[in-house]
From TrEMBL:
Annotated region (Disordered), positions in chain: 23-59, 86-132
InterPro entries in the record: 6-hairpin_glycosidase_sf (IPR008928), 6hp_glycosidase-like_sf (IPR012341), Ssp411 (IPR024705), Ssp411-like_TRX (IPR004879), Thioredoxin-like_sf (IPR036249)
Pfam (any one): Thioredox_DsbH
Gene3D superfamilies membership: 1.50.10.10, Glutaredoxin (3.40.30.10)
CDD domains referenced in this protein's UniProt entry, alphabetically: SSP411
Protein name: Spermatogenesis-associated protein 20 isoform X1
Domain Spermatogenesis-associated protein 20-like TRX: 132-293
GO biological process: carbohydrate metabolic process
Ranges of biased composition (kind: Polar residues): 119-130
Length: 856
């Protein structure tokens, strides 16, 4: 399926005015990577770029431009010069499909041997006759997918770096993840090629990295690729000096030269020759680029004493989102179109602070309409629930079919918040459906959560994998599977015909030729809601509830049939950060909807993290583990230690779980993890958190701070909000001071382009407005206590902490907040207090009165 995904920075280029072709040459800019949602170009580009550049480029940008010009000098000597016709062809953004770019047919997909955790569903030949490379000893599903390549692959580590230094060879670094479609394509087309394998093994030290295992490596070199090309994405391929400084990078490369692209083999030959002939110039250039990137990545307080005004940042962020909003279909981008929950969260928060204004109403409408259009579109799996990665079109109709855990986690929260705000059960039903999918497909018996499901699978057993095959339907299939007549319809009608009409299926298929250039999906359909229940019912003279029941039973039948199809590859690794997000998803949804089972699932997820991902001796989190046999899990040796996002996302999950369950043990653990996070990642000189520990990532040329909210929120944005909440729970001034310091360090980022950090802008607003402390005094199991707690959970109140005071002066929270012991139950009934600005409300015992106060 075509995805025109040559994409650029989040709403502005990372380096305004700098062309990537200055360093890579016009033939090697990224063409068909798996797009990164923090890199898509949107309509606010013009205004945001003006905002970003009105003060002129930062000095680091000038240094980078200078370095690029030096690089261009040695590139011009023949390393990456295009054929005469190639530069013109590739300069047309998104003009070619992936199939037009191929000059050779796709080779067979290799199946992992029995039990291989990197296997993909296919009918490929057995790998028993092939010799595995050293990746066979790894546990990452992505690395295992490359274990039978004829490439002398190394995992990231000192063995590879030592070899490069000893033999004076450049390093070829290839980064991806196991469910990435274009990573699969490059593995099949390029890395299975014997001649290319020989070149990589003889002239380079080839290193393969799973970006989800090692986000520090991914972030550092993606910074380089984004800075020196017109975009970024995966697979990411970068050539490094033996000292790990990058000098050339790109994304997807076909194996051979084509009409619009220089092939990977040609690139290797040119880099090999240039390394031998002009090494000193190349090394000097790489040093200049690295120095410029270091300056660019610097985030610190500088001379600033305080963060910017929240009102100004809020207004500018909203204006930029409003300018790019799609009035008809919702969302904030043209194709490819991603769900970005941090944007929706910002809009809901903005609405709450501006409820009586036109902009406030507008913000609410933008978020709710986007969520409704996504839920009705093909980006949602109407048969099995859950959401696909992104839409290839503006209408949310034809998705890229990969499913990611972090999307499910955040969207469950978004739809729960939409229900809190609107009271419309449409949104709560979607939230429950998301968690139903995670229960069925992404849950391990240990309590952990798997990472993702692939987009590709075999249409039938023994066939080659094809994108979307598991999810597509024909009209004939529905007619055969659902032949039952619909009683009471105004015309002859079967259940299959009812679903065909409601979900927009056609005999020719509802995937356009521009999205399917090879014609593989003609006659195939993505289920998309085309008509409301009311319109479908009126069309056939039926009762709305009758139609609802028929659609539900029909989808259930399709689900049972679909279970018999070859399934997409499951990435069975369990990442601490994403598990933390999923704990939040279950905890928040369970609390909002009053479903104890969901809160219990969040509790099991937290127990998994403490049992399997926490090292008691050091207080550190591990990054990842892998499904073993039964309910067991396996770790790599030595273990991979956690990154900033692991701590920040788990702390958020634990705080959400405490508010949902009122079990103080989770709050206690959150405080311990925050202390460890501060010790390992805090920048005591400039403020904010580095993404990795100082001792991790041996030799990396940059130690970066995550400064963009995208598919996942920036770990610094989440950490800032965690610090505010922890201060609300404990009144420890250190937490508040760190939060202010962090917000101040990111002031320039927020001031230039607030829309790139909507989650941090939201936290800035919460900080300057102040947090409410909602205290419930009562027995956690008593009905009157539960009624008050549920009253709070049913309302959208993002700027609050919810505290259960159920013990005496010696309880954990009473030790943190001594004033809790002074609050009393009224007439021995559960009693609520709302505290702000060092003062508490009068005691409240009735949920309706508490609701009235909280809505003021």
């Amino acid at each position: 399926m075509s995805r025109d995904s040559e994409i650029a920075g989040p709403y502005i280029p990372n380096f305004p005015g700098v062309s990537g072709h200055q360093i890579l040459g016009p033939d090697l800019g990224p063409l068909k990577p798996e797009p990164s949602p923090v890199q898509f170009r949107t309509r606010p580009l013009g205004s945001a770029q003006r905002l970003a550049t009105q003060s002129g480029p930062a000095p680091s940008v000038h240094r980078l431009r200078e370095a690029m010009l030096v690089s261009r000098a040695w590139l011009g000597s023949g390393l990456l010069q295009p054929h005469a016709r190639l530069g013109r062809a590739v300069s047309r953004r998104g003009s070619s499909s992936r199939d037009k770019d191929r000059s050779a047919s796709v080779s067979s997909s290799e199946t992992m041997p029995a039990g291989g955790k990197g296997s993909r569903t296919s009918g490929a030949t057995n790998t028993a006759q092939k010799v595995p490379n050293r990746l066979i000893d790894e546990k990452s599903p992505y690395l295992l997918q490359h274990a039978y390549n004829p490439v002398d692959w190394y995992p990231w580590g000192q063995e590879a770096f030592g070899k490069a230094r000893k033999e004076n060879k450049p390093i070829f670094l290839s980064v991806g993840y196991s469910t990435c479609h274009w990573c699969h394509m490059m593995e099949e087309e390029t890395f299975q090629n014997e001649e290319i394998g020989r070149l990589l093994s003889e002239d380079f030290v080839s290193v393969k990295v799973d970006r989800e295992e090692q986000p520090d490596v991914d972030k550092v070199y993606m910074t380089f690729v984004q800075a020196t090309s017109s975009g970024g994405g995966w697979p990411m391929n970068v050539w490094l000096t033996p000292s790990l400084q990058p000098f050339v990078g790109g994304t997807y490369f076909p194996p051979e030269d084509g009409l619009t692209r220089v092939g990977f083999r040609t690139v290797l030959l040119r880099i090999r020759d240039q390394w031998k002939q002009n090494k000193s110039t190349l090394l000097e250039s790489s040093q200049r680029v690295t120095t410029a990137l270091l300056a660019r990545s610097e985030i610190s307080m500088g001379d600033r004493q305080a963060p910017p005004l929240a009102a100004t940042m809020n207004s500018r962020c909203f204006q930029q989102l409003d300018e790019g909003y799609d009035e008809e279909y919702g969302g904030f981008a043209e194709a490819p179109k991603f769900p970005i929950p941090v944007i929706l969260s910002f809009l809901f928060s903005y609405w709450l602070g501006h409820r009586l204004t036109q902009d406030g109403s507008r913000a609410q409408q933008m978020a709710l309409h986007t969520l409704k259009m996504m839920a009705n579109g093909g980006i949602r799996d109407h048969v099995g629930q859950g959401f696909h990665r992104y839409s290839t079109d503006r209408q949310w109709q034809v998705p890229h079919f990969e499913k990611m855990l972090y999307d499910q986690a955040q969207l469950a929260v978004s739809y729960s918040q939409a229900f809190q705000i609107s009271g419309d059960e449409f949104y709560s039903d979607i939230a429950k459906g998301i968690l139903q999918y995670v229960d069925r497909s992404l849950s391990h018996r240990s309590g952990g959560f798997y990472s993702a499901e692939d987009s590709d699978s075999a249409p039938e057993r023994g066939m080659q994998p094809r994108e979307g095959a598991f999810y597509m339907w024909t009209v004939r299939e529905l007619q055969c599977l659902l032949p039952e007549p619909v009683v009471g319809a105004s015309e002859p009608l079967t259940v299959g015909q009812l679903l065909t009409k409601h979900y927009g299926l056609t005999e020719a298929g509802n995937v356009s030729l521009c999205q399917d250039p090879k014609g593989e999906l003609q006659g195939q359909n993505v289920l998309t809601v085309r008509y409301s229940l009311e319109l479908t019912a009126a069309r056939f003279g039926l009762d709305v509830e009758a139609v609802r029941g028929l659609l539900t039973s029909g989808l259930d039948k399709l689900f049972q049939v679909r279970k018999q199809r070859p399934k997409p590859h499951l990435d069975s690794k369990m990442l601490t950060a994403w598990n933390g997000l999923m704990v939040s998803g279950y905890a928040v949804t369970g609390a909002v909807l009053g479903i104890e089972r969901l809160v219990n699932r969040a509790t099991n997820g937290a127990k998994f993290l403490k049992r399997h991902m926490f090292d008691v001796a050091t207080g550190r989190l591990k990054r990842t583990c892998y499904a073993g046999t039964g309910a067991s899990v396996e770790h790599s040796t030595p273990p991979r230690w956690g990154f900033l996002e692991d701590y920040a996302f788990v702390v958020r999950g634990l705080l959400d779980l405490y508010e949902a369950s009122q079990e103080s043990a989770w709050l206690e653990w959150a405080l311990r993890l925050q202390d460890t996070q501060d010790r390992l990642f805090w920048d005591s000189r400039g403020g904010g958190y580095f993404c990795s520990e100082a001792e991790l990532g041996p030799g990396l040329p940059l130690r970066v701070k995550d400064d963009q909210d995208g598919a996942e929120p920036s770990a610094n944005s989440v950490a800032a909000h965690n610090l505010l909440r922890l201060h609300g729970f404990t009144r420890h001034k250190d937490w508040l001071d760190k939060c202010v310091c962090l917000l101040t360090a990111f002031s320039e980022r927020m001031r230039r382009v607030p829309v790139a950090l909507p989650e941090m802008v939201r936290t800035l607003s919460t900080h300057q407005q102040g947090l409410k402390q909602i205290v419930i005094c009562g027995d956690a199991q008593a009905k009157d206590t539960k009624a008050l707690l549920q009253c709070v959970h049913s309302l959208y109140i993002p700027n609050k902490v919810l505290i259960l005071a159920d013990g005496g002066p010696s309880s954990f929270l009473s030790r943190q907040l001594p004033f809790l012991s002074t609050l009393r139950r009224l007439e021995d009934r559960a009693t609520a207090y709302v505290c702000e600005n060092q003062a508490c409300s009068m005691p409240i015992t009735e949920p309706c009165e508490l609701r009235k106060l909280l809505l003021q």
